[in-house]
Amino acid sequence: MISEAFWLRELGALQTPIIDIIGFSEVITSEKFGPVNPKYREYAHDLNKAARLIMDRMVQRLDESKSQERKSGLKRKSDLKQQSGDALASVLMSHEIRSPLNVIIGFAEIMMRSLFGPMDDPYQAYAEDIHSSGMLLLDVINDLLDLARVEAERIELDEGSVDVEKAVQESLREAMPQAVQGQVTLTWVPSVAKLPNLLCDRRRLRQMLLNILSSAAKFDKPGRMVEVGTDFSDGPGIVIRDTGWGILMDSLKLILTKCLMEQHGGNLLIASMPNDGVTVRLLFPSERILRSEE
Fold first, then answer.
1. Are residues 267 and 197 in the same domain?
2. How far apart are CA 74 and CA 80, in angstroms?
3. Measured in Å, how far apart are the chain's first and last C-alpha atoms?
4. Domain span at residue 20?
5. Which residue positions in the chain have pLDDT lower than 70?
């Protein structure tokens, strides 16, 4: 069972991009660097209000959820687990949070694309920062929502026959922009033999791969390499090796990946050596190997 301290820490981390959005938008509304197109100033004002609304509603709904949990007096651990996940999911899926977040991302995109005329460079940069913060907020919310569902045992895997090599290469292409930004090289190390397909949830497999690849790209040093390969010697496994500081053990994406692997009956194995990066292995049960006739 994930500790309450973890939930509180991650939910508290949501405040950082919200505060950033509020600050960036105030630069535009105050016309700090000179006159701004009135339409853009109006949009910045509206998304500033939306960010403040998210902050207020999130604090309010969390306080309500904690109060209800204290009053319920649930004793069984399983009941507490389910209620904790349900309460968090209720907060994150609330239209009181989702609707203003859509406003923030949508208005920021309008300003980024200069749909109502050009923006001066400083304001253009702040519009891009608002959009990035909005997308970060959405990403963290979605990860927390997934983790809450796993914790409450509400995720059902959509299992099928998955081509492992194809799934890995698709994930590498999707992670490439972040790797390029961090000046990190992502490399696929092909297997000598043709890999059998796995019985797993294809979307969740790609999600797990992206979680690890994005963390590796973020914490690796510029000029380093992240290698992705497979190792079926001890069962079907996907191996990611990075040469940086290592992937944060307590990061939200890593914990979510661990939970999703456990949903598949597998394990997330991590080995770290000083000054030699980290090796992460997604190890699936052998019974998930599909033979050619299957």
1. yes
2. 6
3. 36
4. 4-151
5. 1-5, 8, 61-62, 64-93, 154, 192, 244-250, 273-276, 292-294
Query: What pLDDT, on a 0 to 100 scale, did the predictor assign at position 216?
Result: 76
14 with 131, same domain: the answer is yes
List own/partner pairs for 55-61 with CB under 8 A and 24 or more apart.
55/15, 55/18, 55/19, 55/22, 57/94, 57/96, 57/97, 58/11, 58/14, 58/91, 58/97, 61/90, 61/91, 61/94, 61/96, 61/97
Q: Are 12 and 102 in contact (CB under 8 A)?
A: no
d(CA 121, CA 40): 14
Q: Which amino acid is at 205?
A: L
Q: What is the CATH classification number for the domain harbouring 35? A: 1.20.120
Is the Cβ–Cβ distance between 150 and 263 less than 8 Å?
yes
Q: Give the pTM.
A: 0.77
- State whether the Cα torsion 127-133-139-142 is positive or negative: negative
Per-residue pLDDT at 267: 94
